[in-house]
Design brief:
alpha+beta; 4-stranded mixed beta sheet; 7 helices; 302 residues; globular; single chain; binds uridine-diphosphate-2(N-acetylglucosaminyl) butyric acid; 5-stranded antiparallel beta sheet
Length: 302
């Protein structure tokens, strides 16, 4: 979708929004899949409610893109613009055991920054790609921990109210790869409370997680992490593997040889082929195990 209205463009600029026309989202996602649209960089959080009203008044559909590591985006010219919070470096401020983190901060960078200041707890998240905002929305977790446990406060844009709001951690439900946020809530900043731990100890934990991850996940290939959530008490990866589907392809979309719940873009996969592969695997699992696998990856269709 393209923004061509000069009055709208001028007003967006006044609100601190940078317009980047015709951006390929394939370049902005870890899967390397996605069509083209205009990108709006929101440089001032406080102007977000006004920007959203402006887009609504101008019938300009939009979606918020975070780190792009857990999303599968449609091909071709997209029917909505993407909004983006500019990356923050490091985007973390510490006060005792509290870390105040921008949603656009890199998750791994945040874990490392906190570790260097003797704040631990998030070791398991070290190899999880993406932004802190994305991790909060999905309640990212690995190796027995999840980010939601450490959240004390979140500042967010609540689309339903059209305004910014601060929520306490205990007002939010963090479940397995699921939170009580509305789909159109936008994370802006979070206050985490982290346990004190010597850097050396945290580093040892990080090394163990890294080693486990490297040995079981295809880290150097284009993927969106696990495609399906694990069903209660089960493992999607183990089931798909047992069906002999590792290496199964639809075009350039492929079930990883290393971890069967990771689907790889082996070269130039389209979104359509990746969706066909997802459906095929879901059907096979349903037929053999009578289990309905639920997507973990977020799919943005036109
Ligand atoms: N397994 C197989 N074949 C495979 C993959 C796994 O037999 O191809 C077996 C493993 O041997 C193991 C079991 O399945 O016995 C579970 O595998 P693994 O330890 O790799 O964990 P997972 O349940 O597949 C979950 C998360 C990962 C997270 C790891 C480590 C989900 C959907 N996945 O994977 O998160 O990194 O645990 O904690 O919850 C993600 O969210 O994108 C993600 C990758």
């Amino acid at each position: 979708m393209r923004i061509n209205d000069n009055a709208l463009i001028a007003r967006l600029k006044e609100l601190g929004v940078e317009l980047r026309p015709g951006v390929s989202l394939a370049a902005k996602t870890s899967l390397g899949i996605g069509g083209t649209t205009d990108q709006l960089l929101l440089r001032r959080y406080e102007s977000i409610p006004e920007v959203m009203r402006l887009l609504a008044d101008n019938q300009t559909p939009h979606r918020f893109l975070g780190g792009g590591t857990n999303v599968l985006i449609d091909d071709g010219e997209l029917a909505w613009v993407v909004l983006h919070l500019p990356p923050a470096h490091p985007g973390v401020r510490l006060e005792g055991n509290f870390a105040f983190v921008d949603a656009s901060a890199d998750l791994g960078g945040t874990v490392t920054f906190c570790a260097k200041h003797d704040l631990g707890g998030m070791e398991g998240l070290i190899g999880v790609p993406g932004s802190v905002g994305g991790a909060l929305r999905m309640n990212a977790g690995a190796y027995g921990m999840q980010i939601g446990s450490y959240v004390r406060e979140i500042e967010l844009y609540r689309a339903a109210k059209g305004d910014l709001e601060t929520m306490r951690g205990d007002q939010i439900h963090f479940d397995y790869r699921h939170t009580s946020f509305a789909p159109d809530d936008v994370m802006l900043r979070v206050k985490l409370e982290l346990p004190s731990k010597p850097y050396k100890e945290i580093l040892a934990g990080i090394r163990i997680c890294n080693e486990k991850r490297r040995s079981s996940q295809p880290l150097n290939q284009k993927s969106a992490g696990c495609i399906f959530k694990n069903p209660p008490g089960g493992s999607a990866g183990r089931m798909i593997d047992a069906l002999g589907l590792k290496g199964h392809r639809v075009g350039d979309a492929m079930v990883s040889d290393r971890h069967a719940n990771f689907f790889i873009n082996a070269a130039n996969s389209s979104c359509a082929d990746m969706l066909k592969l997802i459906d095929y695997v879901r059907d096979r699992v349903r037929a053999s195990y009578a289990v309905e696998l639920e997507n973990e990856v977020i799919v943005w269709r036109n």
